[in-house]
Design goal:
Immunoglobulin-like; six-stranded mixed beta sheet; alpha/beta; Rossmann fold
């Protein structure tokens, strides 16, 4: 605990200094007067602080949600309760990280004797991760308002900031659309009727001729058709690359952030449609594993497994990750690799493993495009530097397209989407595979 002067004490010292400027007498008398008055002020400040209420008589609490999503606003509340008999003027400062973007991390409040006061502020985190909020520094002014007692009070709380999920609304749209298709309602963008037999019913004008069940038709004496629905209880495993190439920024956001959004959207849609969805996050080692399930809170489990990950600045071990997945999932599943179309990584690690993977599983490689490279490849050239940049951009796009073609030739589905569309395009690929029976 420390003793500090207040603003009122500083103003008093300034006032005394102004008075002493016009003090008649020689320099010795002025210096003696300054020394005496300064000592008196310091003594009064210390005495006022010591006689005042100790911060130990306060009961402090900090309250906030345990989990907040990046970019979402949440309330953080301080509660200060006093058992002192007098009214206390209290100043406090909290140990909040700058990336939480609190409207205010300081408070100034008067607490009546024997009462409690609640003060709230808003936070809007801009970075995911685990934040341990440690101390709340409290200062109580003395009765005269000249001295104060300050103390840092341990008040540990943990705030987990989960990755942003901007594709949440798109996920709901695709879930509703898929359910409408399952009920047999025709839409302009229908993907088919599924492959799992559901029931027999009488033929209607909108039914396909090939769906007629001739045995049932002969038995009933009228046209009968078979109806199908998309298979349920299938497995989807999302593999999120957390290696060096995922640290690069696309539209101001690391690639891994786009991958996390796509992973959560696919998990939300797959589990709501009756399939199991799991996660494997890896770089040079496997970092997180979420077993495939269709729990209602599976998206939360995936977000919990991802929120502390930071891209490892080393090459990813794709072979080790594939071995982990194949060992855990021997039955057919959709394996979704969220990475980048890096030609060397794909040639050295992904392509050699594809024949073994596609023999049992449906493999999808999903990546996010960099619009900056697209712009450099098409912008008008006005100087040598721009020409070199354009040549490099065209070459990068060519290598990317060549890598995608090699993956498709090896049996993989490739989703190469612009920023903001990765989750939606990946989910559309999942729905297309599901409705055509490729799962």
């Amino acid at each position: 605990m420390s003793i500090l002067p207040t603003r009122r004490a500083a103003l008093l010292a300034v006032l005394v200094a102004v008075v002493l400027v016009g003090f008649p007498g020689d320099d010795v008398d002025v210096l003696v007067s300054v020394a005496v008055i300064t000592t008196a002020i310091v003594a009064v400040v210390v005495l006022d602080a010591l006689v005042g209420t100790s911060p130990g008589r306060l009961e402090l609490r900090r309250q906030h949600p345990p989990v907040v999503e990046v970019g979402h606003e949440a309330a953080l509340t301080w509660t200060i309760a006093s058992d002192a008999s007098r009214r206390l003027r209290i100043h406090a400062a909290d140990d909040l990280a700058p990336s939480l973007h609190a409207v205010s991390r300081r408070l100034r409040v008067d607490v009546p004797g024997g009462d409690a006061v609640r003060v709230s502020t808003a936070i809007r985190p801009s970075r995911r991760g685990r934040f341990e909020i440690g101390h709340l520094t409290v200062r109580i002014d003395g009765r005269l308002g000249l001295g104060s007692r300050q103390r840092s009070v341990p008040l540990r709380t943990v705030l987990r900031v989960h990755p942003a999920f901007p594709s949440r609304d798109d996920a709901e749209i695709r879930i509703r659309r898929a359910r409408i298709l399952e009920m047999g309602i025709r839409t302009a963008r229908g993907l088919g009727g599924g492959t799992e037999f559901e029931q027999l019913r009488e033929y209607g004008p909108d039914d396909e001729f090939r769906r007629i069940d001739w045995t049932a038709t002969a038995r009933a004496g009228r046209p009968i058709v078979r109806t199908y629905r998309a298979e349920r209880n299938q497995s989807v495993v999302v593999m999120v690359d957390n290696g060096r190439i995922m640290a690069g920024r696309v539209s101001g956001v690391p690639r891994v952030e786009h991958a996390m959004d796509a992973a959560m959207m696919l998990t939300a849609v797959a589990t709501r449609l009756g399939d199991r969805c799991g996660l494997v996050a890896f770089d040079r080692v496997v970092r997180s594993v979420v077993a495939p399930a269709r729990h209602r809170d599976q998206v939360g489990r995936v977000a919990e497994a991802l929120y502390e990950l930071e891209p490892e600045l080393s090459e990813s071990d794709y072979s080790g990750a594939f071995a982990e997945v194949v060992t855990r999932h021997r039955r057919r599943a959709m394996l979704v690799l969220l990475s980048d179309l890096n030609e060397q990584a794909v040639t050295d690690s992904v392509l050699p493993a594809l024949p073994l993977l596609t023999r049992t599983h449906l493999v999808v490689v999903a990546t996010v495009q960099d619009p900056q490279i697209q712009e450099w490849a098409t912008e008008p050239v006005g100087d040598p530097e721009g020409a070199y940049r354009q040549v490099a951009a065209v070459q990068a796009l060519s290598e990317r397209e060549r890598t995608a073609l090699r993956l498709r030739a090896s049996g993989a589905i490739v989703v190469d989407a612009p920023p903001g569309r990765l989750g939606s395009d990946l989910t559309d690929a999942y729905l297309a595979a599901k409705s055509t029976g490729r799962l």
